[in-house]
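EI: anyone free to look at a 191-residue chain?
SC: sure, send it
EI:
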Amino acid sequence: MAVVPPPAILDELDATVAPLRPAWPALRWTGRPAWHLTLAFLGEVSEQTAAALGPRLGRAAHRHPSLSLSFAGGGAFPAPARARVFWTGIRGDRPALEGLARSVAAGARRAGAPPPDEGRRFRPHLTLARCREPADVSALVEALAGYAGASWTAAEIHLIRSFPGPAPHYETTGTWPLRPHPAAPAPPERA
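SC: here you go
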């Protein structure tokens, strides 16, 4: 389950990351079709469980308002000096995003698909590259240190199915809207 940024935001991120790729050919760089912000990773689920996910995810989405988010900075898991994953981070409505991730994971559990990463702290990010062997990507993390992308509104969540292999790809199998963010109250009229 994921949030997918709008195309203009992905264009901006791609323009920022593109100059970094040539100097790091050993990394497996992810591409735009794979770019999403994972709320909960489920792993393999049966068709029956997948069918049960829809209503649960719809209810979870409806309980949460749309979110204002942006990409910012860079980082690596487990650490820049011995990275397996290089990523960009998320700024904005982080507490609300964390609450949405908890609701989505709870809905998945109730549908019979406990997330394999359950119990781990939610660390919102977008994966930019993976390392076959642990690598020191400190220079990449430093290159993105000052990156602050444009703000965007996350208005829906998606159930995304991954197809691993030599040419992995992703398919959106369901989409549910978040509640519209309440409008700000109008300022009082002056007499």
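EI: The chain has a mean pLDDT of 90.
SC: 👍
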